[in-house]
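User: I'm writing a tutorial on reading structure tokens. Could you give me a worked example: one chain, its sequence, then its tokens, then a sentence or two explaining what the tokens reveal?
Assistant: Sure. Here is the example chain.
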Amino acid sequence: MEEMRYENFLVHNWRVSNKISVESSLTYETSTIKQTGDVFNERDFDFLRPKVDYRYNITQSTQLRATVEKKVSQLSFRDFSASSDSQDDDQNTQAGNPEIAQEQSWEYSLNLEYRLPNDLGVLNSELYYRDIEDVIDLVNVSTGPDDLRSARGNIGDAYRYGVRLDASTRLGFLGLPSALLNVNLSVQDSEVTDPFLGTKRRLRFNSRWFGNSSFRHDITRWDLSYGLSYFNSDNDSDARRQIDIIDIEREIRDYGLSMFIEKKAFNGVTFRFNVNNANDPQRCRERTRFLGATVNGIVEEIEDYCSGYGVQYALNASYTF
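And here are its predicted structure tokens:
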């Protein structure tokens, strides 16, 4: 596979007033994708990608931002090539799809940002909506009832919307002025029509909620830093499911936790000790296999599989010239 892509763009900045500014851009993208081998195919694509970013400084510490943008995804090699699931010996190889097209979306977002007094931190909230065309997921490419196969392809249109809250603050009010806490939380929903069942469902990897946080404390008098990070997401939504031509897989993951301690030693040498997967997380997969196509609903077997990454320890040394 070979792709030649060119982009031309124009950018315009307009200072409407002391409080209002507008930045607009227009990108023209043209590409040619050529495939050789078992399939010879050559296709040309042309896209216009406009963007408008509006900013209004309500006060010196509060800013409102509104953005409208057209985005176009880039195709990868796995979209065209055949592949197989190394953890599923019973399933046929997934075919490649020489006719797959780029996923396109119009993205609308509204942000309100507030900077805390005395440089304590930043609070930000975002409302967003995504109108998506040519969603890429698995599609049915079976040649008959005895040769059921799927491949990555375009399954139609979808939408996604949600709210995101971000907070970053120094912990001086707790007596730790050199400590920084970051917290992010997103709540979202989406809808697309599943190509195998014909029912509405959420987009894959679009959990109802997910969040992460991180903490870092620098003790300057000791040249010492320590911290941790945490991540978790919804395990119950159908965004964790992969509906395929002959089976449905559901994935369940534990939360993630990592920690570190860092010490500046001597002559520019720094030691850092990391503990990744500190909670020894488990990743489980439940596969429901059907007799014939999934849409028939005749369950043949249910497989449960769990694996653990294990706690990982790492000691690193770095030198600053």
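What the tokens reveal: The mean pLDDT is 91. The chain has one domain: 58-319.
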